[in-house]
Each structure stands twice: as structure tokens, then as C-alpha cells.
Amino acid sequence: MTPNDEPSAENMRQTEPLPSSGGAQPLLENIRVIDFTQYLPGPFATLRLAELGAEVIKIEPPDGDPARHTGVDNESDSPVFLAHNRGKKSVVLNLKTSEGRLAALELVRSADAIVESFRPGVMEKLGLGYEEAMQANAKIVYISITGYGDKSPLAYFGSHDINYMALSGALAQLKDSAGRPIHPTNTFADFFGGIAASERLLAGLVSMQHTGKGSYHVISLAETMVSLMGNHVMIEKLNGGQNGVEILNGTIVSYHLYETKDGRHISMGALEPKFWKNFCHAAGRDEWVSAHFSKAVPDNPIYLQIIELFKSRTLREWTEFGHSVDCCLVPVLDAGELADFPLFKNKGIVHDSTGGLRQVKMHGDVNQPDEAHPPEKGSSTSDVLKEMIQDYRIKAGSASSNS
User: Fold this and answer.
1) Is 190 one of the annotated active-site residues of the chain?
2) Active-site residue, from 65, 77, 112, 190
3) Residue 233, Cβ neighbours under 10 Å: how many?
4) How much is the mean pLDDT over the chain?
5) d(Cα 118, Cα 36) in Å, to the nearest integer?
6) Sheet harboring 255-259: ordered strands across?
7) pTM attached to this predicted model
């Protein structure tokens, strides 16, 4: 039995649902994004836009986005690709040829935004940099996702997520009991960078609506991660503390992770007195109330008592407790438990698509269109290029009739 089996949705505290932000019309309907990105940060950014209704045209090289083959040794597309490219159109262009470049520029003419993630200078060498794009479309919003910006001393260094986390100071916040950094199993810089890119693209579109002009934006994954360190760098400057807000870093009994009877873990976040009091009263330990902010250290007898209390019940039992007592107590769930947990199950946040792929919605409160699938490589090449040629002929005919 897992924490997903209990409590049922009926046993959870009920709240009135907020109105959907989506409505019948997609928020980004008629917005066209040309996506030159590969691997993860860029595709994650454009997936978020696609789920808001944008038309995302994914430009792939003849061999396809390398993410299609990440971590797999067969011809099937990898989970890295399948999880972050649904709802997009795939167009195969060889950008190293004049034909591919001209086709890409023609697509730019009809687009609202471009997202690319090559090393600085590559798009310029291909004849597809911001200057060329702006000449084709003065209103274009152009996003470059980079590791270290385009003008820094590290601008041309190759790096990946773990490098950006390391340099930003974020990785140093994840350490084991011996003080060694823990290797994350999620690529936080990639995902935060993708969110930053989509945020900036939307800001660029708003600016274009006001000014009539396009804009160029360089997103640095390393700088994005540093932006998460505001508390930490200020506290370090003030008192030398290296681990941010002290009461939030696991040093007090009321904001801590505890092991349960079955070897699982529960998260306690009872910072406010009312939540801590609720927990203590419900646990039958009113004498703990005064220890709200006491240290989670071995020589604190109350901390040791709390440890023993949590080890006396299973994760399922503590999950039920947390849903019946307002005390900021929730289970530490594994990936396989998310789809059936009531919070996510009720809205299909984690769900199985009609094609059998387990997917995660980007915007749970936005009405989604019919289930979208990740595209086969080049599946929209013919249709998109035919549309482009047709548009060109219409414009040419209009220009001829006006001359």
C-alpha cells in the first residue's frame, strides 16, 4: 500500500475550485514560434508555450534532434524527447545549405518569435542570427538560450546542467551529512532556464505589442540559477552563513524531513505557531509546543522523541494524519506515485496519453486541447513548406497587382 491509496479524494479537505485561466480560446492562439532548440532547456520552454496555444514549429537537422536518441540504444525516440515535444510540428531543414537557410528565413517572416540554443555565434555563421532575422521580420522576438551568456569569458565553453548548478552555488546547497555535494537526479538548471526563456519571450511579445518593435534576449542558464540564490548571498554577506535562511535548511524540529516506520520520509513544514500547535495537539504531545524552533540535533531530547514518533507509523498513516490535521505535513513521493496522488489525479496533471505515454501538464489550470503527441521527425515538413510557398505566391501576386 502506498500513500496514493489513501486518503481518498473524499477524505481530503475540500476547497472551491478557482475559475480556469484557459477559457475556450487558447491564450497564445495565432502566435507562431520557430524553435531551433535541441535537448532539454529550449524544448521545455517551447512546450510551455505550445500548451498555452502557440504554434511551435520545431526545426530539426536531417538526423533529428539529438534528444531523440538520448539514453536509448534503439531506433525509438527517447523519453527526454517524448516528454518535452508534444504538440509541436517537426520540420526537417539542413541549415548548412543555402536552401535550408532560405526556407528558415521564410518561416521567420511569418513568425512572432524564435528560440535557439546553439553556442554563441553559430546562428550568425548559419546566416540566421538576430540581425538577419530582424531584416526578414522587424517584429521578431529572438531568444538565445546559452550556458554563460554571449559575451562572458565562459561564453564558448561547453557545459551541462551539473556545471551550471555547480557554478551558481545551488549545488553546494545539496550536501550529504559529510558535507559532500549530492548528485541531483533532476536537471534543475535546464528546467529553470526553460522557464526563464519562455518568460522572456512572453515579455518580448508584450513589448512588441506596445512598441511595434522586436527584441533580442540572451538567457544564461548559469545566471538563471544564480537568480535563485538571493537569500543565500545576502545572508552570507551579513553573517557568513552559507546555507540561506537558517530555519528553512533543516536545522529546526518543525521544518524537517523525518523517516517513517516503513523507511519512507515525510516532510514537516510547520513554521507558523498555529500549524505546530495543531501537530502537537493531534499527536498528543502538547509539551512539545514550546519547542517549536528548537534545534534538530542529537542532544535535543524533544527532537529524538519526534524522530521516534514518526518511526512509529507508516507513510500511509502519516499521510492520512497530514490530510486530517492542518499542520503542513505531506509525504515525500516517488515519481511512480504522482499520477495516482489525488492532488494531481483529479486534474490529470500526470496522466497517460492516448498513445500510452505518461506525460505531465505544464499548466494545470489551463484548459487543454485534444491530446497532442510528440511529432515524428519531419512529419510537418511538407505541409509547412507548402503553406510557406502558397503564402509567398499570394504576396507576390498582391505585389504584382499593386504595381
Assistant:
1) yes
2) 190
3) 12
4) 91
5) 8
6) 255-259, 265-269, 329-331
7) 0.91
